């Protein structure tokens, strides 16, 4: 059977069995496994590696026998022989794979480092703990309290002859009543308006004002509002945490934190030509500035315990003042009572003790407040007090200035019973006084 190649010598003589002339045999010229004798096989042992072989020609794979004893070392195959994978090719594949894997790993590492905020490939600082979502913040946290109160706080704008007066306020009824300061709406010549926490606006009208307590009530033309929750200003203690909320310097929805710095701090305030305001204020170090006036001071449960009203400053009269950590709020028990009076009757009742203080008989040295006159049928006279008596304490609160007695008396509602410690001559005595509303 022919293999497709003519191996005959010129002239028709068949070529001898074996490889063509000039071909180098590979492997020992031994017979195939099982062939008798040691004659050379008529088949090429490396036929499968011969690049010139007819692919359709038969081939035999020879399995060499065990080497003869004393035989020389087996010849080493040439790694670069035709048809065999070269060693450099075998090494090149894993090398390229390693380089690609390293490049990919480096690129991913750099991307994760940049995404994690590291600069220059170096991670700085510890891995931050997972921050809680807004919905997970505890209601008693500062953020939880602010979230609760802010929807009930408004910015109050009133047109006046001097321009637009702006302050803060807070909703106290679902049908739109808002508490603010009297000095925010005083001098109004037109309708007021409020800006809600979500930025929407609504017109408002002034229901009533009490200049002496610096409380005013306005009514918003909107229903279904969310009123604040009231706290108890008489239950406060120095050091209690508080938040002041409002629109200082027209920055709406501003929240500042502090503590109750003092209680029953006598405040005497008023604008030139206007009434003098007296109240026993809550002092706080929460940042309060112009525009905070009328906004709520709330406790750690989000309950309103005061109405932010005034600040102390080191600037000269007439200059713009800023926060120095001395702010004052009207106690909410007093503000709530006055608001109910204004809504119910259009005006507030003023609490009195039925005596006049100061004058020529004023006590020096801060050892009490001398009564200059006592109304014959007033509360003080009914309790046995006389002109010339020195009031030392009212409900345990020491009196050092005439304004102390005025401010503290107005803190209580008409009909309240207070204890009075006084000195008549050299004797100290105590009595109870039932406070009354001014007849005016």
Automatic annotation (TrEMBL):
<dbReference type="GO" id="GO:0006508">
    <property type="term" value="P:proteolysis"/>
</dbReference>
<dbReference type="InterPro" id="IPR001940">
    <property type="entry name" value="Peptidase_S1C"/>
</dbReference>
<feature type="compositionally biased region" description="Low complexity">
    <location>
        <begin position="64"/>
        <end position="73"/>
    </location>
</feature>
<keyword id="KW-0645">Protease</keyword>
<keyword id="KW-1133">Transmembrane helix</keyword>
<dbReference type="InterPro" id="IPR009003">
    <property type="entry name" value="Peptidase_S1_PA"/>
</dbReference>
<dbReference type="Pfam" id="PF13180">
    <property type="entry name" value="PDZ_2"/>
</dbReference>
<dbReference type="InterPro" id="IPR001478">
    <property type="entry name" value="PDZ"/>
</dbReference>
<feature type="transmembrane region" description="Helical">
    <location>
        <begin position="90"/>
        <end position="113"/>
    </location>
</feature>
<protein>
    <submittedName>
        <fullName>Putative serine protease PepD</fullName>
    </submittedName>
</protein>
<feature type="domain" description="PDZ">
    <location>
        <begin position="342"/>
        <end position="424"/>
    </location>
</feature>
<keyword id="KW-0812">Transmembrane</keyword>
<keyword id="KW-0472">Membrane</keyword>
<feature type="compositionally biased region" description="Low complexity">
    <location>
        <begin position="10"/>
        <end position="25"/>
    </location>
</feature>
<feature type="region of interest" description="Disordered">
    <location>
        <begin position="1"/>
        <end position="83"/>
    </location>
</feature>
<dbReference type="InterPro" id="IPR051201">
    <property type="entry name" value="Chloro_Bact_Ser_Proteases"/>
</dbReference>
<dbReference type="Pfam" id="PF13365">
    <property type="entry name" value="Trypsin_2"/>
</dbReference>
<dbReference type="GO" id="GO:0004252">
    <property type="term" value="F:serine-type endopeptidase activity"/>
</dbReference>
<keyword id="KW-0378">Hydrolase</keyword>
<dbReference type="InterPro" id="IPR036034">
    <property type="entry name" value="PDZ_sf"/>
</dbReference>
């Amino acid at each position: 059977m022919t293999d497709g190649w003519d191996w005959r010598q010129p002239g028709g003589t068949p070529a001898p069995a074996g490889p063509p002339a000039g071909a180098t045999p590979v492997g020992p010229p031994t017979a195939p496994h099982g062939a008798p004798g040691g004659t050379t096989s008529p088949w090429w042992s490396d036929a499968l590696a011969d690049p010139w072989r007819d692919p359709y020609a038969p081939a035999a794979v020879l399995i060499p026998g065990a080497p003869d004893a004393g035989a020389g070392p087996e010849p080493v195959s040439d790694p670069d022989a035709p048809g065999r994978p070269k060693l450099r090719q075998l090494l090149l594949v894993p090398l390229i794979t390693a380089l690609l894997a390293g490049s990919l790993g480096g690129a991913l590492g750099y991307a994760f480092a940049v995404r994690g905020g590291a600069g220059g490939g170096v991670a700085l600082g510890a891995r931050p703990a997972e921050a809680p979502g807004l919905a997970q913040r505890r209601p008693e946290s500062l953020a939880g309290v602010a979230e609760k109160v802010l929807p009930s706080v408004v910015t109050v704008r009133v047109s006046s002859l001097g321009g637009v007066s702006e302050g803060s306020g807070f909703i106290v009824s679902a049908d739109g009543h808002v508490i603010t300061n009297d000095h925010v709406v005083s001098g109004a010549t037109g309708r007021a308006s409020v800006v809600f926490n979500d930025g929407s606006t609504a017109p408002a009208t002034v229901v009533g004002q009490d200049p002496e307590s610096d409380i005013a009530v306005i009514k918003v033309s909107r229903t279904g509002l969310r009123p604040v929750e009231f706290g108890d200003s008489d239950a406060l203690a120095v050091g209690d945490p508080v938040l002041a909320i409002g629109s200082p310097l027209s920055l709406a929805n501003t929240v500042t934190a502090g503590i109750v710095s003092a209680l029953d701090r006598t405040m005497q305030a008023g604008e030139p030509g206007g009434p003098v305001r007296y109240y026993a204020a809550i002092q706080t170090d929460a940042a309060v500035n112009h525009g905070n006036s009328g906004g709520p001071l709330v406790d750690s449960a989000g309950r309103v315990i005061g109405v932010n009203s005034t600040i102390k400053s080191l600037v000269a009269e007439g200059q713009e003042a800023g926060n120095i950590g001395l702010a004052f709020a009207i106690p909410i028990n007093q503000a709530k009572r006055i608001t109910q009076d204004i809504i119910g009757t259009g005006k507030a009742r003023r609490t009195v003790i039925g005596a006049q203080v100061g004058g020529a008989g004023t006590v020096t040295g801060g050892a009490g407040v001398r009564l200059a006159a006592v109304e014959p049928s007033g509360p003080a006279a009914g309790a046995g007090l006389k002109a010339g008596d020195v009031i030392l304490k009212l409900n345990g609160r020491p009196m050092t200035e005439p304004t102390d007695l005025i401010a503290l008396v107005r803190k209580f509602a008409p009909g309240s019973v207070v204890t009075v410690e006084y000195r008549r001559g050299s004797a100290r005595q105590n009595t109870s006084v039932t406070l009354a509303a001014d007849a005016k």
